[in-house]
User: What shape does this take?
Amino acid sequence: MKVAVTGGTGFVGSRLVEQLEAGGHLTVLLTRNPDRARQQFPTEVYPNVTIVSYDPMTSGDWQACISGCDGVVNLAGEPISESRWTPDRKKLLMDSRVITTEKLVEAIAAAPEKPKVLVSTSAIGFYGTSETATFDESSAPGDDYLAEICKNWEAAANAVQASGVRLAIVRFGIVLGMGGAVGKMLAPFKMFAGGPIGTGKQWFSWIHRDDVVALLMQALTQSTFEGVYNATAPNPVTMNDFSNAMGKALARPSWVPVPGFVLEGLLGEGAKLVLEGQKVLPTRSLSTGFKCVYNTVSEALTQILAGA
Assistant: This one.
């Protein structure tokens, strides 16, 4: 199998590339920074990875590399929670997902030998936030800015169906691995100053990074895998429960809360997703026969933090 991947140097994408290489598949890695990608995936270790330089928000010669691929995985997008949501940052968050996806769909439409499938990511931010509601793939979208991003992002991906290409949209929950959310919380816990963010009562819908990659691989390879799927573990927890599980995995206390206003000061509007949360179930994902290896947050954190 030959797979084109955008966002392949990122937190989830890098693990996907590793899995593709381990399975003997060919990977076409589309990246804005080919030098960094070559350091991350040296040829002597990843002989099946071809690195292609591209500008994800413009048409160009890079689009020709889509022809002949069996599948495309679209993981590109600026990180949501890295900095304060200024007007310019909000525009970048939107454009880096929507325009990038539009250009990828454009490349697929123009390809003489089209891929069979586009696996395009989205986020559970699609549903908005709530402390009381439970969401699954059949739930309506929310009305905040992140929901707007997700709606436009998915609409851009939906256009690929006009080319006769199967589409699977995977809505990511909070992905756990060494790095990401766990990495940001690790230092305070190690200094005996860890604890829940905000009230602690908000829902935390999570998934282990290896389970996300397994779901992406299933979307690539199973012809019946079509439509929207939540990438969340079947057992979401509250922020208090997550904090307690992290403290237990590290043998550290978890009683020092991070006040919500601190996060709001750092992220502004972008803090809403963490402070209000949402309970999201992978109903449709499970209906395909997909099973998470890590079903509880304790199992996931114990594996991730072993030796940390």
